UniProtKB/TrEMBL annotation:
InterPro entries: GlmS/AgaS_SIS, GlmS/FrlB_SIS, SIS_dom, SIS_dom_sf. One of its GO terms (biological process) is carbohydrate derivative metabolic process. This is Fructoselysine-6-P-deglycase FrlB with duplicated sugar isomerase (SIS) domain. It comes from the Bacteria. Residues 25-157 form the SIS domain. Keywords: Isomerase, Repeat. One of its GO terms (molecular function) is isomerase activity.
Length: 309
């Protein structure tokens, strides 16, 4: 069995461990009112996008997310948060070096002995969420879970929703789908981007992602029978009907057509938390890979960390 199967299934426990860890590392995380930049590469960048949306929505302060190589060097921030599983990614190390002594930096990292830890002012180590698979799943979501706990969110409820997601049947058979588009709104735009990346990485599958409100401004032209539109979080009025008119399948944590996909663990909480829905999308990506006789632990052209010469 691929490592990624066990890593996906372990996410509820990892998120609970993140909740226990949060009070002990709170001093290294953003304070209310601080102007914060959050950076990463690939999956970590998408988690940065999600956190930035959540922190601003919570009224905690202006928060921007950047791909590490695209950080605006002339802009001032009170704190930098860097998310990096390996702690060896070239763009993250270059940025930490460039900003050293200028902006206080905290790294959320899987390897506590990595180079990123030495370059940052503080570190939050998550070795219990580190992974053997090249394709990231639990480290990224655990980093976001910890940041959500620091915003005051209840990770107990989130982890319970995740328990549903790791066991629920997939909402649609991947073998019958030729293309998928993931949609999000607000903070879940980052989750949609991550879900699409998982399909591209694990299964070399045609997958796109857009803000849900922008989808009908062009990208909906791709929708057709045999293709899938998957929304994470809130959806705009009329979107399911517009997708249905294209002949594409539509999946949302509340409905799949007229059928419930996931039911929250607590009465009255439906749909489930979008991070739990992301678990379902991760499982969909892995199922796509195995249906194509691909190894989701070792996708082509990819390594666990991008280290540039």
């Amino acid at each position: 069995m691929a490592f990624v199967h066990a890593e996906i299934a372990s996410q509820p426990d990892c998120w609970r461990e993140a909740a226990r860890l949060t009070p002990t590392v709170a001093a290294h995380l953003p304070r209310p009112g601080e102007r914060v930049a959050v950076v990463g590469c690939g999956t970590s960048w998408f988690m940065a996008m999600a956190y930035a949306g959540l922190r601003e929505a919570a009224g905690q302060g202006e928060t921007d997310a950047f791909q590490a190589s695209e950080f605006p060097a002339g802009r001032h921030y009170d704190r930098l948060i860097a998310i990096t599983r390996s702690g060896t990614t070239t763009e993250v190390l270059d940025l930490l070096s460039a900003l050293r002594g200028r902006i206080p930096a905290t790294v959320l990292v899987g390897d506590p002995d990595s180079a990123a830890v030495a370059l940052a002012d503080a570190s939050v180590a998550l070795p219990f969420a580190d992974e053997r698979s090249v394709v990231q799943t639990r480290f990224a979501t655990t980093a976001l879970a910890l940041l959500r706990a620091h915003l005051g969110e209840d990770l107990g409820r989130l982890a319970a929703d995740a328990e549903v997601a790791v066991r629920a049947p997939l909402p649609i058979d991947p073998a019958g789908i030729g293309q998928v588009t993931f949609l999000g709104r607000g903070w879940t735009v980052g989750l949609a981007q991550e879900a699409a990346l998982k399909c591209r990485e694990a299964a070399t599958f045609w997958a796109e992602a857009y803000p849900a409100m922008d989808y009908r401004h062009g990208p909906i032209s791709v929708a057709a029978p045999g293709r899938l539109v998957w929304a994470l979080g809130e959806i705009p009025d009329g979107l399911p009907e517009d997708v249905a008119a294209t002949g594409a399948a539509f999946v949302h944590s509340r409905t799949h057509g007229c059928r419930t996909v996931l039911t929250s663990w607590a009465a009255g909480r439906n749909p489930v938390d979008p991070m739990a829905d992301l678990i379902l999308a991760q499982r969909f990506a892995v199922a796509l890979a195995t249906s194509r006789d691909l190894d989701p632990d070792a996708p082509r052209h990819l390594t666990r960390s991008v280290v540039l010469a």
